[in-house]
Design goal:
The structure is a homodimer. Chain A is of the alpha/beta class. Chain A has 3 domains: 7-47, no CATH class; 66-164 and 302-329, Response regulator (Rossmann fold, 3-Layer(aba) Sandwich), CATH 3.40.50.2300; 167-300 and 332-338, Rossmann fold (3-Layer(aba) Sandwich). Chain A has 12 helices and 12 strands. Chain A has helices spanning 12-19, 23-30, 38-51, 56-63, 80-92, 108-120, 135-144, 167-180, 201-215, 231-243, 256-268, 302-317, and strands at 68-73, 98-103, 125-129, 147-150, 161-165, 186-191, 224-227, 250-253, 278-280, 297-299, 325-328, 331-333. A 6-stranded parallel beta sheet of chain A has the order 2-1-3-4-5-11, sandwiched between helices. In chain A, strands 7-6-8-9 form a 4-stranded parallel beta sheet, sandwiched between helices. In chain A, strands 10-12 form a two-stranded antiparallel ribbon. The longest helix of chain A is centred in the C-terminal third of the chain and has 16 residues, at 302-317. At the A-B interface, helix 5, strand 2, helix 6 and helix 11 of A face helix 5, strand 2, helix 6 and helix 11 of B. Chains A, B: InterPro entries: HTH_LacI, LacI/GalR-like_sensor, Lambda_DNA-bd_dom_sf, Peripla_BP_I. Chains A, B: Keywords: DNA-binding, Transcription, Transcription regulation. Chains A, B: This is LacI family transcriptional regulator.
Chain lengths: 342, 342
């Protein structure tokens, strides 16, 4: 034991020496203190990852195992999160681990409080699904507890794992499918959300959508519309798009849950889907198959995302410190809502 | 302090003396041991409730507060549970409490393991939503931790609170509405589940359905059909009902989630709703309002149930020991799926 490198023997001093900075500077990064430069943060994080350093609280948590992992969900109203949880449950089925879920209601303040509660209790590790917190807060969380993120694109991250759909490709598949079914004026109904580093799934889908439109030489009358999460905001945006003089030929929605609202608004306005307007969702949740929806969607296998995240988390809990970034390849599932017009 | 009655001064001996039984007998009830008679259990539970006794583990949990409450949900796929969680979140908003959710996937073994994990951690209290566990396990849970049950009818319970919809009345409202819209051959698509004491919402709705059919002098060709939770089982049951030579004029479904599947099967079979068959759900979830569903349903206000459960739980955590049994009065929300036939 005395000669082997263990995480317990790595201290804040070792990290400071490795990074060539002061102990106070490392401490500032760990506390996520105000005024830490991006460059300092990157240097310290690189050393932390290389040395496998964990601050004391997290080390204590790892020693006193609770056999519980925490899962942070933004919103259980979106049925896609059920698919993710099914995957998490499958992965944990034959292990000693159980999951407890915190629901943030898409509010950053609740999210941060829940993550604190989960790391303080402590839990053995965390799966954060599409968190709203900024990158620095993710770092601090990952330093306190083994952490895997789903739906957060940061492929260079060294302190935590990520599990993602290739969201750019997913959006490209939608545009190509709609072009192949004879539509060219294609709008994207996305989410109103702050995301300076393009880590979120909607930002990635916007990039994919724009790239595919450009590749096909298309420019939509209305390209990207962003609406808040609520049913009221979604329906208002859909109504504006569908009642406008230049109604798009197709509306690609960032998630099925939004597409179901668009189908409803179209019906209320007396429009026929897919004749008057095609509608496409994302996530391929169970609602797509219901005959009254018959909704074309992109399958990113929430089950696989959840399963893979739980597997990676258990590896991290058991000691892996090198980062893994797992990406699922999405596929388009065509249904009646985007059939070619007759 | 020395003269006041406190829960700390009540011991297993005090309980045994009060109940007129041995300490070993009380211990057996607390451990939920095999071979405890219903009569012995009732005597001990009455004394426990009267004296406000809490076993040591629960008392310890109450002293070392974690400011966390555990919520057990059967299944986040049913959108009704989102409404309940919204209510829980509303109640906790201005308190120091946070909730962590365990999802049992409708499996008893997972449910019991989660409840153990939640009481061992410990949490300050538990909300169990429609648990599958038998009454004796609920008792043991309530002895370990302040507990409130939603969707579990046991109005005589002394050790825990309950929050329920008047499910019998809800089912009666549906039958009366369907009769008023001209239907008499009304089937009830209920849930396949073991419930010897009629504590579950589906048992209560079956009782209400039967009573209302009898009151109206009606007997359906097919009265109660019970199906498993899965989409496959639900759709198979719906298909059998709708394809039978004696197709019911109306199908009342125990939850909206099932009614959406029935709408889908009807459409696939080329049947028109409400002309060929009326469909009614229960829970009045957000999906009912979508134009492609336009589903009549019973509103039991999941938000109110969750809110009230969290309020009662906080009272219990703060020391209340007398039981409260809160009942919501449901109301029917009529939509297109049960319009009178033209």
């Amino acid at each position: 034991m005395a000669s082997s490198r263990t995480t317990d023997r790595t201290t804040i001093r070792t990290v400071a020496a490795d990074a060539g900075v002061s102990v106070a500077a490392v401490s500032k990064v760990l506390r996520n203190a105000y005024g830490v430069s991006d460059e300092l943060r990157a240097r310290v994080e690189t050393s932390i990852a290389r040395l496998g350093y964990r601050p004391r609280a997290a080390a204590r948590a790892m020693r006193g195992q609770t056999d519980t992992i925490g899962v942070l969900l933004a919103d259980i109203r979106n049925p896609f999160f059920s698919d993710i949880m099914d995957g998490v449950h499958s992965a944990l089925e034959r292990t000693k681990y159980q999951s407890l879920v915190g629901i943030s209601q898409s509010a950053l303040s609740i999210e941060l409080a829940l993550v604190d509660a989960m790391t303080d209790r402590p839990m053995d590790g965390l799966i954060l699904v599409a968190p709203r917190m900024v990158a620095a807060d993710v770092t601090v969380t990952a330093l306190r507890s083994p952490t895997v993120l789903i739906g957060h694109h940061e492929p260079q991250a060294t302190l935590f794992d990520t599990v993602n759909d290739n969201d750019r490709l997913g959006a490209q598949l939608v545009v190509e499918h709609l072009v192949a079914t004879g539509r060219s004026d294609i709008a994207f109904l996305s989410l109103e959300i702050d995301d300076p580093i393009n880590a979120l799934v909607t930002s990635q889908r916007e990039i994919g959508y724009r790239a595919a439109m450009a590749e096909n030489g298309l420019s939509a009358h209305v390209d990207i519309v962003r609406a808040g999460q609520s049913s009221r905001e979604t329906q208002a945006a859909a109504r504006r798009m569908l009642k406008s003089g230049e109604r798009p030929e197709a509306i690609f929605c960032w998630t099925d849950f939004v597409a179901l609202e668009v189908l409803s608004v179209a019906r209320e306005l007396g429009l026929s889907v897919p004749e008057d307007v095609a509608v496409v969702g994302y996530d391929n949740t169970s609602y797509c198959d219901l005959a009254q929806n018959d909704l074309t969607s992109v399958d990113q296998s929430g089950h696989t995302l959840g399963l893979q995240a739980a597997r990676l988390l258990i590896e991290r809990i058991k000691g892996r410190i090198s980062p893994e970034h797992f990406v699922v390849t999405p596929r388009l599932v065509a249904r009646g809502s985007s059939r070619p017009r007759t």
